[in-house]
Amino acid sequence: VLGNGSNEVIEFLVKAFVRADDEVITSHPSFLMYQKFVQVRGGTNIVIPLRDMTHDLAAITAAVTERTRIIFLDNPNNPCGTIISKERFDEFLKQLPERLVVVLDEAYVDFVAPDERIDVLSYIRQADNIPAVVALRTFSKAFGLAGLRVGFGLMHADVAALLHRVRQPFNVNLLGQVGALAALADREHYHKTVSGTASGKAWLSSKVEELGCKAYPSQTNFFLIDVRGDATRLYEALLHRGVIVRSMKAYGYPDFIRITVGTKPENRRFIEALAACLGDLGYVEST
């Protein structure tokens, strides 16, 4: 099922399966649009805090009731960049009622090592005795087509048929479709982006650690940094130097920022600005 970005497929899922007072389980922090669409629909959000920066699958399982309709899991998680192992996900599905829909939002899956990715197609094709599994993908991240708004969902044909009933007929524009097809054909650019992101992330992480901060491992094109001080003040200081990062205070991590891997010049500029701002704020020794 194609969507105007994968977020539209999220909206389709909520429209198709959630009525007033039905429950939808999500994690916190994670992609905020899950809860927004449920609120608009009149459903009830059941929000489970992350545990050690990963989805707490045991707590999610325990939160399932007769009113539960959908479970949303961003994998990798945004903003933490952590993933659910194949073994944990398999055991998780076996404990859930078959009537549920489990949605794996894989917006950043292209940056995950292939041998660590969940084989979603196997769960879609062999759906006996497990909930319906839906995987969400987007052209906005590794393919770099965020402005064209193209995403899609992988799911069993029966689930897709329900989503098509709530989908408007012209939801993905022609330019977006042409761009998506061209991106799929350009494997060289795709592999260059993925490999460049991996090397840039490794370089940035090492430089951040040298500055006295803590870089957290991530399976995406972004990662969290413990800056040893108020993240919002650092965000503002970097902004004055023309460098934009994300403060994680609103997500429950007041000393963390999140950065996205850029080009080599962008990465170097960030490290230079970070070093200066950390010293100015007194978070670490001036370098």
Structure description:
The chain has 2 domains: 2-184, Aspartate Aminotransferase, domain 2, CATH 3.40.640.10; 188-281, Aspartate Aminotransferase, domain 1 (Alpha-Beta Complex). 40% of the residues lie in helices and 18% in strands. The protein contains 10 helices and 11 strands. The chain has helices spanning 6-17, 33-41, 57-62, 86-94, 120-125, 157-166, 174-185, 187-210, 231-240, 264-281, and strands at 2-3, 23-28, 44-49, 68-74, 101-105, 132-138, 151-154, 214-215, 222-226, 246-247, 256-260. The chain has a 7-stranded mixed β-sheet. The protein has a 4-stranded antiparallel β-sheet with strand order 8-9-11-10. Helix 5 links the parallel strand 5 (101-105) and strand 6.
Which labels suit this protein?
2 domains; Aspartate Aminotransferase, domain 2; 4-stranded antiparallel β-sheet; 40% helix; Aspartate Aminotransferase, domain 1; alpha/beta; 10 helices; 287 residues; 7-stranded mixed β-sheet
In short:
This protein has 2 domains: 2-184, 3-Layer(aba) Sandwich (Aspartate Aminotransferase, domain 2), CATH 3.40.640; 188-281, Aspartate Aminotransferase, domain 1 (Alpha-Beta Complex). 40% of the residues lie in helices and 18% in strands. It is built from 10 helices and 11 strands.
Could you name the CATH class of the largest domain? Alpha Beta
What's the Cα radius of gyration?
20 Å
Question: Mean pLDDT score, rounded?
Answer: 96
Estimated share of beta-strand residues = 15-25%
Helicity level: 40-55%
CATH topology category name of the largest domain: Aspartate Aminotransferase, domain 2
Which overall shape is indicated by the principal axes computed on the Cα atoms? globular
- Overall structural class, as computed from helix and strand content, comes to alpha/beta
| The named CATH superfamily of the largest domain | Type I PLP-dependent aspartate aminotransferase-like (Major domain)
The helix-strand sequence is EHEHEHEHEHEEHHHEEHEEH
CATH architecture annotation name of the largest domain: 3-Layer(aba) Sandwich
